[in-house]
């Protein structure tokens, strides 16, 4: 401690000074005499406050006491640092800090902890002597900031930096995102949010719209659980994400949801096949889908064989497609699918295609006997695509009643018919069977398994009553005993007028009530299952003589009186 003195007589013997030091309670701690104008003080607590008083004593008495001088060693405290916050329960936080200030242990040294809301209004103020304290009773969904100031003998420190209280965790990512088109160009995006504090001020959502390259094309903020998107090109592809932003930070981005404002393409319809050249044909179709004119819209044309093997798969942006160099005698299935910005159409109806039509009816059917009850039948066929594996013929044999007696499937254009009854009448038809179905049945061809009957011979005419005569004959033909075998007996007058024509199954015939004085000609013909015999030789008859004519040309006989 040093001072000045302007008194006279300072240099005279006995002149000195009394230095007195008091604490803040006015207790005298030190009193010391010195002849110097300075004094050294030791062993004081320099973090405390003191008052210093000096008085001069000379040969003529005491000076007045000097003005009291207040003294403290330290400066104002430093701002608290390294502030830490830790949740210790619902709406309860432990806050702690560091302080590098000297003289913290003085009785008056303490801290002021102040809590502010988002509007910088003080909601809590605490005076504490420790370097930590507990904050409780805060609204868990509000946002707070905390500052600390140290208060020492020399006054307060500067306020510490403000530390945010994260009273809640960050919001949960929005879920169950729905997109609904409700006008021609408007989309409603809605979602759910299970986060705490979603109803508190400041909680909001950021809705981001990306194109298919994940470039941001729009971003909207809203406090609602839905937002309207307008003026998007609904034929382009977009993805939407939603993020919640609350007092505890922001959520993760929700899963990206694709905007399906237009439905997937309609399946192609009205598929047509047109032959262009011998080995070339065109598939064409209609499409009523939206967004056909947008980039990337195309069709996949797939052609399968009958075993469902994929032979051709081709993409095209046109509504037609040309196919070349297929085996036109095979069968194919054509399938078309539209692919647009919003997905795939359903597959079109499969269209069956084969170049050729149904087979033509076999023609020029030939029958040739190759033995007893055995026939070789052959035919022609002008149909295309006869060489396909499934191509064959059905040969059907019918009896006279149109009942099927034999049915053969053959791959060649000829076959053998055997085991047929040689005296029955049969008819044969042939039908070609191709991929496209059967041909019409060929014309029916009759099997002449035996020749026509022989002409009756040895014709006899005999009178056996006054007005009756019997005509009889012989027949050497086969098949006389089969159903339908009969004879036609015809009697003509000399002017070749037919007087009687009668059928009989016997080899004799009775004629009555003729004018026996006239002349007649008798003719007999056999009718069998395979046709008519030649006509028998005409036999001339007259009652008075009863002489038979000779064979062939008629010979006139004259009655002898």
Describe, in plain words, how this protein is organized in 3D:
0% of the residues lie in helices and 50% in strands. It is rod-shaped. The model is unreliable at 545-552 (pLDDT under 50). Strands 1, 2, 3, 4 and 5 form a five-stranded antiparallel beta sheet that branches. Strands 8, 9, 11, 12 and 13 form a five-stranded antiparallel beta sheet that branches. The chain has six domains: 16-72, Immunoglobulin-like (Sandwich), CATH 2.60.40; 81-165, Immunoglobulin-like; 175-258, Immunoglobulin-like, CATH 2.60.40; 269-353, Immunoglobulin-like (Sandwich); 363-447, Immunoglobulins (Immunoglobulin-like), CATH 2.60.40.10; 457-542, Sandwich (Immunoglobulin-like), CATH 2.60.40.10. A hairpin with a 2-residue loop joins strand 35 (426-434) and strand 36. With 561 residues, it is mainly β.
Provide key terms for this protein.
5-stranded antiparallel β-sheet; 45 strands; Immunoglobulin-like; single chain; mainly beta
């Amino acid at each position: 401690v040093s001072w000045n003195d302007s008194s006279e007589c300072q240099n005279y013997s006995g002149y000195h000074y009394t230095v007195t030091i008091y604490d803040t309670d006015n207790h005298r701690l030190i009193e010391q005499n010195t002849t110097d104008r300075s004094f050294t003080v030791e062993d004081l607590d320099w973090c405390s406050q003191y008052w210093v008083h000096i008085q001069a004593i000379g040969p003529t008495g005491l000076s007045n006491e000097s003005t009291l001088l207040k003294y403290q060693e330290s400066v104002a405290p430093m701002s608290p640092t390294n502030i830490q916050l830790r949740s210790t329960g619902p709406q309860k936080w432990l806050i702690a800090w560091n302080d590098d200030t000297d003289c913290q242990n003085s009785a008056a040294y303490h801290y002021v902890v102040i809590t502010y809301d988002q509007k910088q209004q003080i909601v809590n103020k605490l005076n504490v002597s420790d370097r930590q304290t507990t904050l409780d009773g805060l609204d868990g969904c509000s946002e707070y900031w905390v500052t600390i100031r140290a208060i020492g003998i020399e006054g307060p420190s500067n306020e510490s930096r403000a530390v945010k209280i994260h009273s809640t965790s960050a919001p949960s990512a929005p879920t169950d995102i729905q997109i609904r088109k409700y006008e021609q160009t408007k989309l409603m995006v809605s979602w759910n949010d299970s986060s705490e504090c979603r109803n508190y001020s400041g909680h909001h959502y950021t809705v981001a719209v990306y194109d298919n390259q994940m470039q941001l094309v729009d971003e909207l903020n809203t406090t609602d659980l839905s937002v309207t998107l307008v003026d998007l090109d609904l034929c382009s592809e977009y993805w939407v994400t939603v993020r919640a932003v609350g007092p505890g930070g922001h959520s993760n981005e929700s899963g990206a949801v694709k905007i399906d404002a237009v439905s997937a393409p309609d399946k192609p319809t009205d598929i047509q096949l047109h032959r262009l050249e011998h080995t070339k044909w065109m598939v064409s179709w209609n499409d009523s889908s939206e967004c056909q004119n947008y980039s990337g819209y195309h069709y996949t044309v797939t052609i399968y064989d009958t075993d469902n093997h994929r032979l051709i798969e081709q993409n095209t942006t046109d509504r037609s497609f040309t196919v070349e160099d297929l085996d036109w005698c095979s069968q194919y299935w054509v399938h078309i699918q539209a692919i647009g910005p919003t997905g795939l159409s359903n597959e079109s109806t499969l269209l069956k295609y084969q170049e050729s039509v149904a087979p033509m009816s076999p023609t020029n059917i030939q029958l040739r006997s190759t033995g007893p009850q055995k026939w070789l039948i052959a035919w022609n066929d002008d149909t295309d695509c006869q060489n396909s594996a499934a191509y064959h013929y059905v040969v059907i044999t019918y009896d006279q009643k149109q009942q099927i007696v034999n049915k053969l499937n053959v791959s060649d254009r000829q076959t053998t018919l055997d085991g047929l009854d040689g005296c029955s009448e049969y008819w044969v038809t042939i039908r070609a069977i191709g991929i496209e179905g059967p041909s019409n049945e060929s014309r029916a061809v009759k099997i002449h398994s035996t020749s026509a009957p022989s002409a009756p011979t040895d014709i006899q005419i005999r009178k056996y009553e006054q007005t009756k005569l019997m005509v009889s004959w012989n027949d050497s033909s086969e098949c006389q005993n089969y159903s339908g075998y009969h004879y036609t007996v015809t009697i003509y007058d000399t002017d070749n007028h037919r007087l009687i024509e009668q059928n009989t199954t016997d080899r004799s015939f009775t004629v009555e009530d003729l004018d026996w004085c006239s002349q007649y000609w008798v003719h007999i013909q056999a009718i069998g299952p395979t046709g008519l015999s030649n006509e028998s030789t005409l036999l001339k008859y007259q009652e008075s003589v009863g002489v038979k004519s000779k064979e062939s040309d008629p010979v006139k006989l004259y009655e002898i009186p």
